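Extended Data, panel c. Modelled sequence:
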Amino acid sequence: MNSQNPQPAGPRAGDLPSYAELIDLVAVLNAQGDIEEIVRIITEQAAFLLGAENAILLLVNPRTRETLRTVNRQSPKAHDAQLHEIQLHTSGYIMHSGNSLLSHDLIHDSKFSGLKFKSDAYRSAIGIPIRSSRTVIGSIVLINKKEDGRFDEKDLDYLLKFGQIITPFFNNIQQLQIFFEHPIPESVLLKKYANLGLIGRSEKFIALLQAIEAAGRCDVRVMLQGPSGTGKELVARAIHKISERSQAPFVAIDCGAIPSALFESEMLGHVKGAFTGSTMDRKGLIEEADQGTLFMDEIVNLPMEMQSKLLRVLQEGEIRPVGGNKIRKVNVRVIAAASSSLEKRVQEGLFREDLFYRLYVYPIQVPSLQERGQDIALLAGHFLEKFAAEQHKKVSAFSAQVLEFIKTRPWPGNIRELENFIERLMTHVHAETTTLTRADLPPDLQQEWAGKFSLDQDESVQPSLGEQVDAYEANLIRLALKNNHWSQTRAARALKIPVQTLHNKMVKLKIQRRDNGEST
């Protein structure tokens, strides 16, 4: 077996390869120490052994369901757009159902009735879920379009045995996740995205940044899910900024803010004379986003009649303005967002299932502020600096007690509510004030304060500058050690300090590694 350059799949001869081929595959995989090479070989060999023209292996994060990796092996003449849609549907079916797939004729298969096939459409498909510890973490799908290449039950049985052979190589999910997400050092991530307006350092926030980083490296559609006020548009802008489309337009639309009667004209545009008052041609938002990114907030509110038109955009890359008779081609990346369950809307018959699968390619969960408690002080400080500059005020810090007051308040409106709260405080504070204290709070917040703290509590007791510097240094050192698997040599190199200096600081700051890899 040539693992480096597997032979291309030829016409199916009808006879399946022997199971000795699978034994050879195990030997090849066991000799590999590189996970990406293992995944490539598995995809190539699945296609080769079963004579498939096209194969796709997809892996997901079992906790978040975010796509970690897709590996394609396809014939040089593959129709990319058509094949991509078939791959999304077949992989989606396997991932959601957990079942294997055998479709003798995709065109007439009721499971994929939402697909619009071209004359050279791919005809037959088989696929299996990839499991680790009984959890579905991915799928393999093989696709053919030749009449003499239709898959049958024997092919599926062989692929199932193939799946049993490769399963052990996917048991280390943590290793897979670390490798495929290609995490960059947390300190670099935090600085990079702080420049894009994303502030924080909590575990949930760093996981969000890693998902953004992964989404920015590919051009798939993204579904952002999370409560209202969590900054989903900011996340979408960040994905756009780091993507290959960054020089093209980013167009945002709130699907819940446009009256249904105007939706089609707003989205698709209109030609002169299309309706009363249309005195000139006007581009729609989709065409304005051509070559760039279209962010569709609260996609759950998209009217049913517009869902079919959006489906055409995603499937064919075409629009027809209201009143027009000419089709216009567009190339847009859609990032959708929802603060309520889109799956529930599908179940209720209010959202098209075929559109759901086209949008739900790379889901990202945006955490609530409650889940990011560690970030509240950082965000509050960020907004303090922002509004001090906007309002030309000298305030540059909160007193320790005011900061504690902010950290312990509930924030049901998430980051948006916190931002509005800080803006209100800054509007109320005197222009010459340098530190915002209890005395600067509006009367209603003074009352709320009284319920939490003693009114005569000394606000002057707060960490010294030295204590704050030590805390900052300790946090940076812990991050560097964690990112470098607790190698002091590599951590010192990342921090650009001598190893002995790092060791001395660890002793001073009492930084030690626990047995579980965490620090004290």
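DSSP finds 20 helices and 16 strands in the chain. This feature is highlighted in the accompanying rendering.
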